[in-house]
Each structure stands twice: as C-alpha cells, then as structure tokens.
Specification:
With 305 residues, the protein is mainly α. It has a domain of 207 residues. Helices cover 79% and strands 0% of the residues. The chain has 13 helices and no strands. Helix 3 runs antiparallel to helix 5 and helix 11 runs antiparallel to helix 12. The longest helix is centred in the last third of the chain and has 52 residues. The protein is elongated, with a radius of gyration of 32 Å.
C-alpha cells in the first residue's frame, strides 16, 4: 500500500513538470488532426446514415410522435449527433491511450528512471516491436470483451462497472508492460505481474474511472453547440493528461516493485551463500599436542640370529 500511494503522489507531482505538460500536447495535436480530418470527410455521411436508421424504425417514429405531443420534439434533432459522438468516444479513448503509450510513455519512464532509479540495471526484456504487438493484442481483446458486454450495459449498475473495468484492464496491460520493458527481464516482468496483479488492476480501473471525467465535456458539447469545437480538444487533452498520469504512476510503481524484487533476490542469494559457508565441512587440524598424545607403534625388533 505504501508503494501504491507514494507512486501516485509522485506521478501527480511529475505531471506538473513543464516538460510533461508540453509533451502532453503532442498526442493532442495528432488526435485532433486525425479527428478533424475524419470529421471533415465522414461527419455528414455518417450523420445522414444514422438519421436514416432512426427514421426507418416504426417504433422510434411512434416515440417521435409522442415526444412531439409533449413538446420534446427537438430531442430528435440532437439524438443522431449524440449517438455518433458516443460511438466515437471509445475510439478517441483508445487512440489517446495508444498515442501516450507510443509517444509519451518511453520518455516518461526514462524520466522516472533517471531521477529515481539511476542505478537500476536495464535488462531490456522487451523491444519496440514486441511492445507494439503486446499493446495491439491487449487492445483487440479489450474491444472484443467490450462488444460482447454491451448488452449488459442496459442494466443500470453494470454500465458504471463494466466499461471502466475493461479500460482499466487495458490500461494496466499496456502501461505496466511499457514501464518495465526496458529494465525488467521477461522473468522479472512475469513475477511482478503475478505478485502485483491486484494492485496493477486497481490502478488501471482507477485510471479508467478518472478517464471518464471528460465525458462531461462531451455532454456539454452537445448541449452548448457553440462551444463544441473548443470543448472537444479540451476533452481530448484531459484524456491525454489522465493517461500521462497513469503512465507516470505505472512507471513509479513498476520500477519500484522491480527494485524491491532485485533487492529481495540479492538478499536471498547472499543468505544462501552464508548458509552454504556455514555448513561447509571443516578439515580437522592436527595440533602438536595431539600428535604427541597419539600412541606410537612399537618399532620392529631386529631379527634373531
């Protein structure tokens, strides 16, 4: 628990570093450019397609008629953009996570290692290509679980539990691996994952709930359409900062756990050497007095003539 809390407060302090704040704008620029480009090319066709689907439903048409009668007919106008935004939000979250893992996590981990763990040996248990396949595999599995769990989102309590749990697991798998890839060997990484799985998953889930905070800005963007263009980049930047905080947290925690693991292994090896030296048989030393005390064999008698 001490390692968990100390790592969190250190990560918060590192987020206030000017270089970290400046670096957080790199994924923002990438994601905003991608979002604006895709929005410019596909926003109107996708919006028309969603509206056509809504209008083709007889059940929804009866609901629209009832809403018109009670004076809530304008909901139909904002429903299609709202559905598109809610559908795009998970994609933005995933892109933010991958952008931070690709652009920021190596630098942030190196910053933590240089400041706190300068003497920690780098065993390089994972290279860039291995990290990429690891992240893509975890992302694919998380998306499959997300799609399979969507029917359960209709149950009110589960919609507050399942998505943060899935994103938390994804955050834990990606960021914990990247934090240990340069310093830990594969055996050390697996041992840390085994020992600290509960804490790492809890960190990921907490970061998943923390990453849900920008959803308020998405909702505000729907209500206040004039400020939507401003609120969307702000929300994406908050996503990036949340994932940067997560990356720093996992770096402090992972490297701290790795240092403790190596100290434990060194202490265990030293104890084994001491025990083996203590039980090693000692050759008996023959003292002079002992030699004098030994009985002498009688000298042979000369032969009789």
């Amino acid at each position: 628990m001490t390692l968990l809390l100390s790592s969190f407060w250190r990560a918060v302090a590192y987020c206030l570093h000017p270089r970290v704040i400046a670096l957080s704008f790199l994924p923002l620029l990438l994601i905003v450019g991608l979002a604006l480009g895709l929005g410019y090319l596909y926003w109107d066709p996708v919006l028309d397609w969603v509206r056509s689907l809504l209008e083709a439903s007889a059940l929804l048409n009866s609901i629209w008629g009832w809403l018109d009668n009670v004076g809530w007919g304008r909901i139909k106008v904002v429903l299609a953009p709202l559905l598109v935004i809610f559908a795009v939000t998970p994609l933005i979250v995933v892109l933010s996570l991958l952008a931070v893992a690709t652009l920021m996590t190596p630098y942030l981990t190196r910053l933590v290692a240089e400041r706190r763990f300068a003497d920690l040996e780098r065993k390089k248990g994972g290279n860039w290509l291995y990290s990429l396949f690891w992240s893509l595999g975890a992302l694919l599995l998380a998306l499959v679980v997300m799609l399979l769990s969507m029917p359960f989102w209709l149950i009110p309590p589960l919609i507050l539990i399942l998505p943060p749990l899935i994103w938390g697991w994804l955050t834990y798998r990606v960021l914990a691996f990247d934090a240990l890839s340069q310093h830990a060997s594969p055996e050390e990484r697996r041992e840390i994952f085994r020992r600290h799985r509960g804490a790492l998953l809890g960190m990921g889930v907490f970061c998943g709930y923390l990453g849900a905070a920008p959803s308020l800005l998405w909702a505000s963007g729907v209500v206040f359409a004039a400020a939507f263009v401003v609120l969307v980049p702000v929300a994406i930047w908050i996503y990036t900062l949340v994932f940067a905080l997560s990356s720093l947290w996992f770096a402090h925690y992972g490297l701290g756990a790795l240092q403790a693991l190596r100290q434990e292994a060194a202490a265990s090896a030293s104890a084994k050497v001491s025990v083996s030296a203590a039980v090693q048989p000692v050759e008996p030393v023959l003292l002079v007095d002992d030699a004098l005390a030994l009985p002498h064999e009688p000298s042979p008698k000369p032969p009789q003539t």
